[in-house]
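Help!! Second protein's tokens look totally different from the first
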Amino acid sequence: MRFLLMHRHDENAPETLNPSPEFIERMGAFIQDAIKKGILITAEGVHPSAKGARVRKERGAGITASDGPFTETKEIIGGFALINARNKDEAVAFAHTYADLFEEIEVEVRQVFEEEDLPSPA
């Protein structure tokens, strides 16, 4: 099974946008180990919300786009990882190990739809 891990952090905390060399080294070792074990498919960090936008479609109101930064949101998505795991418990255990690399972070774990999860055409 594949799981998407999205990590959220406080965009106003300077260390999240300018990680230390020690953090970069720990993260690099973690990523290499997870790839070697066949767990990690891909992982990326994302730029600050000031470089992003939100696109919304609301029923009866059409589509709107808003440029960042997203000041009304304290925690924003800082990156994601796509992993292989046998089940949700294994994915959550991996998220624990990942979260332990940070001082403060929230990691959301969501199972990705696989072809067999989708209804078959009639």
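Here's the second one for comparison:
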Amino acid sequence: MFDKILIANRGEIALRVLRACKELGIATVAVHSTADAEAMHVKLADESVCIGPPPARESYLNVPALLAACEITGAEAVHPGYGFLSENARFAEILADHNVQFIGPSPEHIRLMGDKIEAKRTAARLGIPVVPGSEGAVSSDAEALKIARKIGFPVLVKAAAGGGGRGMKLAENEGALGQALATARAEAKAAFGYDTLYLEKYLVHPRHIEIQVLGDGNGHAIHLGERDCSLQRRHQKVWEESPSPALNAEQRGKIGATVARAMGELKYLGAGTVEFLYENGEFYFIEMNTRLQVEHPVTEMITGIDLVNEQIRIAAGGSRLPEQNDVVFAGHAIECRINAENPQTFAPSPGRISYYYAPGGLGVRVDSAVYQGYVIPPFYDSLIAKLIVVGKTRNECLARLKRALHEYVIEGVETTLPLFRTLVRNADIVDGRYDIHWLERFLEQGGLEK
């Protein structure tokens, strides 16, 4: 086991990793920008190192500064959390070159799954069902039109190096395809420095289902069930739950087994998530995230398995994964991402939290690094808390969530709490009748204003 881990992240995920390290008896190193000097993970870590000014490129994405922090503190390993450098294969390689363990998959697998075209090819080779579309990159607008006619409109134009909805455009017909290609190509070039595109069939009413996996790197992998992440805005998840209201036991068992077998064949190491669109009883692979997900607590609540703990143990080489039959699923869990944003427009709302009270009680968990008096900086993601609730049934979970949302008080900045207080009472949500387009339609129709 490691003696000391550097946490190359900030906010609630840095605190989440820190807590896992504490329970394992591992010393922690927090890194921070000057804007995060008063952050909770900095206050609670055994050591802290300032790695630069507020802009992420000069601090949390500053690889030389992170390496220097490892050298200064003697950290043996780095946990990247999610975002920032968590899916940067070169960062993992550089750490290895300096005899520092990256707590995550191999650089080879990070790079493979980071290229959406190669990821899709790999998934198909491993027997994972994929969305109909181009077999690889499209080399010209003429080729794209030929492929789109073959698979049928509407189609999605997607960046090979995309993520978070960037470099993704919908073309509903032939007339819209040229503009979609040009816009996606420009966005991809600006965001990723890489403008390669591919096409996928656009599914009209899909759900977003993802499978959590753990692999030991030697051919043994297990799945920890699915998460339904269909409530999204601009391809950003806001509400996740497990198990999915749309699947039955046979469906979830089948897709879980398919993914676990494929990850074993790939000799995948650590935690990862294989994401699908699901429509009319069929699953279609869209991507794999080679890191911890924001919504990982949902899985932890219904399995009792600490995913960060497992990540660390696997990276240290001293953990034997349980067998699939040893994984026990119990209850229903829902996570709401509480952002410092206007609940209707989603405009960021940084500033000082003048009053803060988090809910509690049976089955309620809050993952957050904020506190009363804390100043939310304007430089980073607006996520300030994750409210996770578990119950024996989905109805009990929803009732508990409604109560917890009523208790939650955050003053001084705008938050998305009003959105969730509305959603938890909506008939479609209560009945589990929603797809990936539901939330945007709801907001466009003035759902919060009614």
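Reply: Different proteins will give different token patterns, so don't panic. The chain has three domains: 4-103, 132-201, 207-444.
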